[in-house]
Structure formats: structure tokens, C-alpha cells
Amino acid sequence: MKKTLIATTALIGLCAGPALAETIGISIPAATHGWAGALNFHAERTVERLKAANPDLDFVLTTTSDPGQQVSDLEDMVATRNIDALVVLPFESEPLTAPVQRIAESGVWVTVVDRGLSQEGIENLYVAGDNDSFGRTAGKYFADTLEEGAKVVVMRGIASTVDNERVAGFQAALEGSGIEVLAMDHANWNRDNAFNLMQDYLSRFPEIDAVWAADDDQAVGALAAIEQAGREGEMIVVGGAGMKEMVDRIRNGDKAVPVNVTYPPSMISTAIEMTALGLTGAAPMSGEFILTSELITPENADKFYFEDSPY
């Protein structure tokens, strides 16, 4: 995947610019939590890089903390900036579907990121992470490294399709491994909820070999509860999404956090780069582009560590 992104960036820098300036609008959620903060970080870095490489491309980037404001931002982009392409991560799918559809029908190239619209076929390009792969990658790591009979507890996220897909992938990877899942409860992708849930698991189960936190904020909460209970060294914790703190632990050989699973906020960079290529005609970019999750290990952790990232 990294080679693909490098090749894409190189193409943008080498292709001849369009005869007339083209404008790409980018609308994403505000940095209200860690993953969204990293999304903003990568979007801003990508815009800076592409503007330097392509003087004939212009960008307008807006962030929003509610769907109503996002709709207003999109309308303003069309009315006052006359955008030629739009990259949008919908704050919510349903309220954004009709506004984005109207923009697409006006002839604007549309790329949707991560959260799909409630109607299929509106966008030219869809870029997202692979939730089945996210769960399956963690489950395969457990199946490959834990002994038969190992005991695992699971922290689910918010009850949703995304959570269901992740859990289904995890369970599929464990089939036939002999690993025992002691409990599987929701912590809502929240570190405080995860702390409380981990306290409950620790009181209920005297033996736990591994925790699948299914999210890095949940992993932070789980690790805090384990430390408070004085049970460090008894179990490993595997989260997901590549939070800087988790990746740094892996780089430094923390035995409690041996690996992580990517669900990269840098997918926004992929979406912006591919939209720029499609807009300039340098390469055909349409359909779906799904980023399969990767396992972050001590051997490759450096390439997933971004010192300046807020996440």
C-alpha cells in the first residue's frame, strides 16, 4: 500500500498541470477526538504538498462539528468557490446524501471517504478502510501467537455496522484456534468506558492472556485499568487505528502492546491524491479504493509513527 501512495504522489508531481486552475473542495469532521484530529493533520499536510507540486490546483479545506454546518460549507464551496471536485467525509451519512447528490449532478467530481452515503452510486470514487480486515488482522495475530486454550476478552465499539464487521472478521480468524473468548462487551470506542469495562473483566476473570480492545482509545483505558489492578505482565493488549502512543510503545518493545492494527486516518491523503489525479486527467480514478488493514510490529513501526501527528 505504501508503494502505491508513493507512486501516486510522484505522478502528481510529474504530470503536466491543467490549462486552467482547478479547485478541489475538502470537507471533513472537526478534530473532536484523536482519529479525527489525525485526519485533519493528514489533510492539511497533503494539501500543502500538492499545492507546492501543482501550482494550477487550488484547494479549499473546511472542518465541521455537525452535519448542518457541513451542508452549509458544501453549498458555499459550490456558490463562491466554484469547485471542480469535492472530497467529503460525511459527518453523518443520511443528512449529507441529498446535498452531495446535487453537487455530483451539477458535474462536480465527488470522492466520498470512510462513511458512505445512504444511497449508492452518487460518488465517482469511494475511499475507506476495511473493517472486516481490521478485525481479521487482530484475530489472525492472536491465532498465530497465542497457545491453544488461551483466554481472551474483547472490547467492542459502538453498536453499529462498523463494529459488527470488525467483530465478525475477528471471530472468523479465531475459528479452529482453540482460543477461548471469555467475554465480549461494548466500550463505545471510549477510554473511560474501556477503563470501567476492563475493571469488570479483571474482577471476573483471574486469568486473562490477551485483550482485543478494537480501538486505541479503548486500549489506553484497558492498560490503565490493568496497571491500577497491579496485573501488568499477565496479558497483552491489542488496539487498533495506529495511535501515536501505541505505535511508540511498539517501537520501544513494550511487551504489553506487541502489535497494533491500522485503520489509517491518512486515508484522507489517499482520497485527495486520487481526486487530484482524476481531475487533472493524469490517470483514471473511479470506483472503490479500500485500504486493507496492516499489522504494526516492532519491525515496521517506524513507518507508521508520525511525530507531529495529534493522534
UniProtKB/TrEMBL annotation:
Domain Periplasmic binding protein: 24-275
Segment forming the signal sequence: 1-21
Compartment list: Cell envelope
InterPro entries: Peripla_BP_I, SBP_2_dom
Pfam families documented for this protein: Peripla_BP_4
Alphabetically ordered keywords of this record: Signal
Similarity remark: Belongs to the bacterial solute-binding protein 2 family.
Name assigned to this protein: ABC transporter substrate-binding protein
